[in-house]
Amino acid sequence: MTTIDIAGTPINLAVIIIVVVVKILIIVYVCNRRSKMQKDRYVEDSRFIPLTMVKFLDDMERERPIRFTSEQLRIATENFSILLGSGGFGTVYKGIFSNGTAVAVKVLNGTSDKRIEEQFMAEVSTMGRTHHFNLVRLYGFCFEPSLRALVYEFMINGSLDYHLFKAKKGVILGFEKLHEIALGTARGIAYLHEECPQRIVHYDIKPGNILLDSKLCAKVADFGLAKLCNRDKTYITMTGGRGTPGYAAPELWLALPVTPKCDVYSFGMLLFEIIGRRRNMDVTLGESQQWFPMWAWEKYQKNELKELMRGCAIEAKDEQVVERMVKIALCCVQYRPETRPVMSIVVKMLEGALEVPESSNPFSNLFPGVGETGDSFVRIVWNNANPSNWSSSELVSKPQVVMGTPLMGKYDVTMARE
């Protein structure tokens, strides 16, 4: 083969160099293309996964609950010196970590170590797997002999009951904001019931368990009574009362079959207190107004809701939304669980996307002449005239578990069945 020199360089060497450069460019192009195809394939595959599940998996990767030491929490809370409040399941303190994150540290208490462990497992097993804008976020926990605690995001505006029943100290909320709070609460409960991989029943929906962030957005909190529910069973079997008087559904007190609709009932009672901006039970008022839900039903039945509005000092601009809320509350507190709507329907009714159906009398079973069952429940309603002293921890009894797994038995974990 003949070669010709150009500037002293053989032509065959130049060809080799060109070929090598071209091969390198081809390899780089192929690698980049393959990487892009793999990325596109991942994006394409993710389209076949429900959006709620994609978000759930991403959140779980990023936000696994942290296990704190007792020393870390003592430092963050300045030795538990800033008290935020206390309830049936624990005492809550404010804490601030070194990075500036404010937290609420709930120190669990109970009558026995077993009781504390049950509270701990109930909250961690539910809150550790839930991620929704309208649920308070669990940052982590501490479980040591000297301290059993849960670490939550700090809600600067406290609980809803503070604003509803202590208006002189809290922010006086208008009905536009109260409607937003009711809607946010409903969305949080609907997520627990209908969007979680395992349905969660809260059992203790009330104003004290609805927390408000810096923008007064609602966050459902306090899962000390909550239970995970498989979707293959119809009822949760209970052996006694559960929840807080005045908010708990009748089936929780009367050893009747229980479903997630018990939370719907509690939400209805919460909605009445939002409408009236008062406790449902107030014996300082006239007899007809002492129990607000009954007063609301009577006015609804007689087409006199405007009189109810005047009695609650509701402005004309809010009358339409309040009337809708009254009708929804009446639907939610129906005596028979199967006649109550599911929470996703409640959300749509509050949004105005669905019309609210006409309601039947939800309290027909509460009065003399309806039998022993009705009589026993009406005593619960009327004989507890000071709801500010009610504590759900005093009213909890262990449910009878219909089914379980060996792992649950090993750790003595109960799972209520829907």
TrEMBL record:
Pfam family membership, one: PK_Tyr_Ser-Thr
Keywords: ATP-binding, Kinase, Magnesium, Membrane, Metal-binding, Nucleotide-binding, Serine/threonine-protein kinase, Signal, Transferase, Transmembrane, Transmembrane helix
Family annotation (Gene3D superfamilies): Phosphorylase Kinase, domain 1, Transferase(Phosphotransferase) domain 1
Catalytic residues, chain numbering: D204 (proton acceptor)
Membrane listed as a keyword: yes
Bilayer-spanning residue ranges: 12-31
Chief location of this protein within or outside the cell: membrane
Annotated residues for binding of ATP: K106
Membrane association type: Single-pass membrane protein
Domain named Protein kinase: residues: 78-364
Any one Gene Ontology molecular-function term assigned to this protein's record: metal ion binding
CDD domains: STKc_IRAK
Binding site for Mg(2+): N209, D222
GO cellular component terms given for this protein: membrane
Localization terms from the record: Membrane
Entry similarity comment: Belongs to the protein kinase superfamily.
Protein name: Protein kinase domain-containing protein
